[in-house]
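[job 4417] fold queue: 2 targets
>>> target A
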Amino acid sequence: MNLLSAGLSGFALGGSLIVAIGAQNAFILRQGLLRRHVFVLCLICALSDATLIAAGVGGMGTIVSQSKTLILLVTIGGAIFLGSYAALAFKRALRPAAMVAEKTEGLSLKAAVLTCLAFTFLNPHVYLDTVLLVGSLSAGFEGRERFAYGAGAATASFVWFFGLGYGARLLAPIFARPAAWRVLDGLIGLVMSALALGLLWSAFSDF
């Protein structure tokens, strides 16, 4: 297999893993609609994915998979964070008129960055997808082809996050109405709640 084929294989895998309704994507979508700190947040998400993918391709996946305590702590922490954010989303859904004002106020850059980092690194699924899955599949490649495979997977993250963040503004006319924000925040709350419950179930299913 040549470098291009390896890179395309990595891009296809990375794209298939990241294009899903999740906490991180919902947050980027919402910030994109508000046009708040879009570039910085998209860059953080993409670089975080690229770093974790590089760790997986470099062999870190084996170490992480053997640390059950670390996985448990990250899972519980992620569930608590997602549950808290779900509560905030439901609260916003009950006060949709406040979203019009939030377009100019919103999260500060520091708060947005910290929230984005929490969504990224308190989600155990991101380690399963990037470090473990991409890392294990990259074992089928050697040398430069393995590097190309990882680079392809990382490129998919950049394309997705920047496309989502800046593409969200195309939906701005719809979200000029408070009712649309009510629906979006209600859906975000449901997604976050489901993810939090799923994490708790996976954390304690072995007990």
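>>> target B
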Amino acid sequence: LTGPVSLRPGFLPHYRKKRDPRRWLNLQEYQSKKLMQESGVAVQRFYVADTASEALEAAKRLNAKEIVLKAQILAGGRGKGVFDSGLKGGVHLTKDPAVVGELANKMLGFNLTTKQTPKDGVKVKTVMVAEALDISRETYFAILMDRSCNGPVMVGSPQGGMDIEEVAASTPELIFKEVIDIFQGVRDDQALGMAANLGFKGPLQRQAADQIKRLYDLFLKVDATQVEVNPLGETPEGQVVCFDAKINFDDNAEFRQKAVFAMDDMTESDPTEMEAAKWDLKYIGLDGNIACFVNGAGLAMATCDIIDLHGGKPANFLDLGGGVKERQVYEAFKLLTADPKHACENLAARREWQLGVFYK
């Protein structure tokens, strides 16, 4: 792996966030799987249910040896989450369809709290009922935009099912990177080579190569900035399946991806971040009590670092951008002053104005 590759969009990884930033369009797991299905990518059979009775019927239709029931929210850590109904875990395995209905009854309409949700959790409105498949081996595969390469790259590892950053740090020799020519796309030899690097052999190598090419087709089709599959797994029956995927989209392509962007569930978005996005302001809420009002992303991050260095805690990341207009400045001030955590003083008389900092 030559040079740093950012696998996930986001700012300020060492500051505690109130919730994941929602500046990018994010889809529920089942929505991503539907897009993958439409591009011929192999995924497990699944249905979506909004009621417990629908979940029960879906489980019966699957007629699978084992069924997995997953609560659908835009947050990680669902397996270890807790519902306010008392149910523990947002992901459950069972061989009995009747149990699926019982579990769905304790999920739907209730709040699920994980390490990545707000304190009160997020209400579950949909569950995914899927066929549970055994995985004999897990790998990692992603296609993402890399500015240093002026285009998309493939990143893969035979070590899947875990945090890829940990793999890159502990065993960098197990991370493989391949630049994709935007005019040629993924060549057959590239796909086969990456499949071999992921540890697929014999007929499975060709299966994996086919999936890699289909994932690149999806990447282009939906104007993605990243398609991450973790794990890209191998089943005991000799099938290559994309078990879980995260797709990030280019917001600038919304005008030609209206069907995709219409899937966005705004009910889970942070209201402040939604309001900021209306004015093209880059806002991410943090857990501190010192509000930051800064022009430029680099200075904004440096400001947060300086605050943290001196024992303070930034309450937000707010970048006005380079071509900011008067109305945007006004709306940015409104966002900050509306938060009860922030007390605004006469900043003109303080040196801290140069840093764009409000002290509580």
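[job 4417] complete. Note on B: The domain at 45-131 is CATH 3.30.1490.20 (Dna Ligase; domain 1).
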